[in-house]
Amino acid sequence: MSLLTPSWLRVFLAVAEHGSFNKAAEALLLTQPAVSQKVRQLEALLGVKLFERTPHGARLTSEGHTLQRYAHAVHWLLLAAEDALAAGLHDAPLTRHLHLGNTPSLSAHCFPAWLKTFVAQHPHIMVHLHTATTSEIVAAVARHTLHLGLIEGELPDEKAVAYTVLQESPFVLITPPSEPWIAHQTLPLSSLHQQPFIARPPQAQTRRWMENLFAQHHTHPRIIAELDQPDAIKKAVSHGIGVSLLPECMLTPEDAHRLHIITLTDAPLKRYLKAIWPQDMPLHPAALAFLETLTSEFPHLREVIQQARHPDFKALYHLLEQGKA
Fold first, then answer.
1. How far is 239 from 177, CA to CA, in rounded Å?
2. C-alpha distances in angstroms, 64 versus 47, 69, 138, 308?
3. 56 and 152 within one domain
4. Residues 153, 192: one domain?
5. pLDDT tens digits, residue range 193-207?
């Protein structure tokens, strides 16, 4: 929060984010009655009900969602004002912040190249990366804890966030470069039945997707290890411990010397790389800047970016983009 943020805005956004007066009070180091009183005063002043009180917490009303959208815009503007004043005092460039979420696979493989391009074009935007599962990133974006998320696979709740598909992410079978695998360039999925298989952890969406795929094809690999990092999976496979499925984009030229790559012919082995941001909210200017650096790789993002610029906040975007490197 900005030091300039008024108390009503601080309290309202905290209750909206946590969905609870008690949790908001804990986060703000206030008492629960003080938080409740501040919200009641705000509702009385505006003449509308902002939250539905339930035994399980507090849920935004339609009027509350409207105020939340504008409250975030006010919060962004106050942060920009604070940064601009600090920059003036120190005769330094304006520093902005981008809170971004990635799944582990993207953080390890795709993100470093994207970050290099972004930092070169926007040296005064500080990137704060949060690596987590798809479900955790979706929840954080929906709570407005993250400005932008980059995920793989299916959304647990498509109504929770806005999103666009960046590209298909085909999966391939990786095996040791030895018999019996080395003789094959293509195989059916059934060839994995009872074969030693290195899987992702149970909480990973990729694991659940694979289990559904195997069940549909009546194929049951013998899971001998659960590893949470693609590099660890590749290393284990290269040592002959088992086989696995990985997105093709996570394989490097060096992997061709230590792994054998096989295309599976009878299953739709692909998922989708997606960018997500808060639903019914203006896309944060720093998030827009990040997506703009990806347009050379994903040209269709240009149209998405234009649509994501909320029409109510043209002046806000102009102010926040002033001084952009």
1. 10
2. 12, 9, 21, 21
3. no
4. yes
5. 999 999 999 988 888
Q: Please check whether residue 245 is in contact with residue 172, taking contact to mean a CB–CB distance below 8 angstroms.
A: yes
Pull the structure tokens for residue 171. 């999966």
204-237 pLDDT, tens digit each: 888 888 999 999 999 999 999 999 888 899 999 9
Q: What is the DSSP letter of 198?
A: E
- Residue 180: cis peptide before it, omega within 30 degrees of 0: yes
Shared domain check, 295 and 257: yes
Neighbours of 37 (CB within 10 A): 13
The rounded distance, in Å, linking the Cα atoms of 238 and 242 is 8
Task: Using alpha carbons, select from 2, 6, 5, 27 the residue that is nearest to residue 16.
Answer: 27
Neighbours of 212 (CB within 10 A): 10
**Low-confidence residues of the chain: pLDDT under 70:** 1-3, 80, 82-95, 156-158, 280-282, 309-325
DSSP string covering 59-113: EE-HHHHHHHHHHHHHHHHHHHHHHHHHHHHHT-PPPEEEEEEE-HHHHHTTHHH
Look up residue 223 and give its two tokens.
């899971």
Whose structure tokens read 């008024």? 6
Q: Are 288 and 313 in contact (CB under 8 A)?
A: no
Task: Give the amino acid at 52.
Answer: E
Total-model pTM: 0.68
In a domain, 80, yes or no: no
Instruction: Kindly state whether residue 76 falls inside one of the protein's structural domains.
Output: no
Domain that holds residue 15: 7-71
How far apart, in Å, do the first and last CA atoms of the chain sit?
A: 24
- What count of other Cβ atoms lies within 10 Å of the Cβ of residue 126? 13
Strand partners, 260: 175
